[in-house]
Amino acid sequence: MEPEMAIADAPETPGIDRELTIAARPETVFAYLVEPDKMVRWMGRTAELDPRPGGLYRIDYNGSDIVRGEFLEVDPPRRVVFSWGWEEPGSSTPPGSSTVEVTLTPVDGGTRLNLRHTGLGADEINGHAVGWDQFLPTLVTVAAEAETA
Fold first, then answer.
1. Which of 14, 23, 68, 112 could form a Cys-Cys staple with 144, CB 3.0–4.6 A?
2. Closest CA to 22 of 105, 116, 129, 91
3. Does the residue 66 lie in any domain?
């Protein structure tokens, strides 16, 4: 199944909005958002995740680009919200300064994933959008493969 991605920016709150359909149940997709061994199958090389409100959210992409925040809401298998920012000193998006909301909805043939990333500076939106557009198609693939395994 080819990923379907809709791209839109909500004018009332600048940010990144993505919607895609994954050929897997919400329970399967949710695991790829909160379990470190599954997270690194689609994003990052290492992950430290403690999926509970206040728990650590930390992903090392390549040894120098490391995102850190905390889980704000964890509602399996429907929704996860976490804060987000870069550990690099002087980053214009420091740890915890932006918010990512992911909602999973069952649909025929799988799950609709809606991602909303807000709290980014105007100069950071495009770069983060490129990142989500790079990683989300891999999530579509690995979750669908897990569903059929």
1. 23
2. 105
3. yes
- Look up the domain containing 86 and give its range: 13-148
Per-residue pLDDT tens digits for 50-60: 999 999 999 99
Residue 73: CATH number of its domain: 3.30.530.20
The H or E element spanning position 73 is strand 66-75
pTM for the complete prediction? 0.90
Q: Is the residue at 1 inside a domain?
A: no
Q: Spell out the SS3 assignment of 16-51.
A: EEEEEEECCCHHHHHHHHHCHHHHCCCCCCEEEECC
The radius of gyration of the chain's CA atoms, rounded to the nearest angstrom, is 14
Tokens of 130: 């490129």
Residue 3 maps to a domain: no
Is 25 within the bounds of a domain?
A: yes
CA distances from 101 to 11, 26, 81, 117, 148 (A): 17, 15, 4, 6, 27
**Phi, psi values for residue 14, rounded to 5°:** -60, 140
- Are the CB atoms for 135 and 13 separated by under 8 Å? no
Distance (Å, whole) CA 114 – CA 109: 16
What is the domain count for the chain? 1
- Mean pLDDT along residues 92-112: 96
